[in-house]
Amino acid sequence: MFKPTDIQRGMTVRDRDGEALGGIVAVDPRGFTIGKGRIFEREYPVRFSDVEDLDGDDVYLRRDLASLPGAMLAEGALELEDDHCHPDTPHRPVAYTHDLTGALVPMME
């Protein structure tokens, strides 16, 4: 069992499958906020009741990425090479989910 006072700014938030969702940018009495980045287009609030466990500097949530409302990856965010991305090309958000092997794959529309 974790203590809410153990959750600090700068820790990494992960879904229940271990996928990194982002870093904590703020903590308040109700929960904490994940900073915007490759998963969230805006800062994302999380209640302490949504936390499953802590492991060092990692905070594990009870849910997986696909079940978090507002969780989106920028198109191509998982590609190692950035050949397709150009600074002037707008990003279209794409929802991702975990397949049966645990890999992160785009959801079909």
TrEMBL record:
This is DUF2171 domain-containing protein.
